[in-house]
Amino acid sequence: MHRISPRRGLAVCVALGALTFTAACSDDAAPDGSPAPAAGTNPAVAPAPADPAAAAAADAALTGDTKQICAQAGRTTTSFGKLFADDYKLKIEAASKGAEAKQQAAQKIARDVENFSFALTNMAAITTDTTLKSALTGMSTQVKALKGDIEKLDTDKMAALTAKLDKACGKG
Q1: What's the chain's average pLDDT?
Q2: What DSSP state is assigned to residue 35?
Q3: Quick one: signal sequence residues (predicted)?
Q4: pLDDT tens digits, residue range 113-123?
Q5: In degrees rounded to 5, what are phi and psi of residue 29?
């Protein structure tokens, strides 16, 4: 049985806490000006629009709107931080439940990491702000490097990338 060291678990929790705290300071309004989703809802796992044209129109509406892209990046990062913490718990719990549980947990974690990376890449593609594009691309690259293995998280590097994103968004 693979055991996750308490030291490693603490480092991951600290990094995720920093990501969640930093991103939680983002704008509370949705891009269309409506209130942010209610507590307990998870916008990162909402189903994708059924119409690809609707998704393209949403991207077109955000293109070049640095403030709204920053707000979306903040919401996405906060959501991923919470999801990441849940995935970490899932991985620990699955370790004692056998091979099938471990495989299912690994697949879910890989999907969550891939979705977050895709979201960061997508936001980088639609921004015209080079500093923001660099911050989002750097975060996406770091997240892709995890390849679903959340124990590979480099907390110092992720904190630096989050600080870079905050700076690009005028928060630090």
Answers
A1: 75
A2: B
A3: 1-23
A4: 999 999 999 99
A5: -95, 150
Which ranges constitute the DSSP H helices of 4-154?
Answer: 6-24, 52-62, 66-95, 99-126, 130-146
Within its chain, how far is the Cα of 79 from the centroid? 6
Q: Name residues whose C-beta falls within 8 Å of residue 22's C-beta, 6 or more positions apart in sequence.
A: 77, 162, 163, 166, 171
Contact 121, 69 (CB under 8 A): no
Q: Are 136 and 72 in contact (CB under 8 A)?
A: no
Could you give the CA distance from residue 107 to residue 113 in angstroms, rounded to a whole number?
Answer: 10
pLDDT of 149 > 60? The answer is yes
Q: Count the neighbouring beta carbons within 10 Å of the beta carbon of residue 147.
A: 12
For residue 54, what pLDDT is reported? 65
Tokens of 159: 């904190």
pLDDT in tens, 20-46: 434 444 444 444 444 444 444 444 444
Residue 1 CB coordination number (10 Å): 6
Domain range summary for the chain, segments of one domain joined by +: 6-28+51-168
Q: Which two tokens stand for residue 87?
A: 């995935």
- The residue to which tokens 């960061």 are assigned: 120
- Are 149 and 105 in contact, with CB atoms under 8 Å apart? no
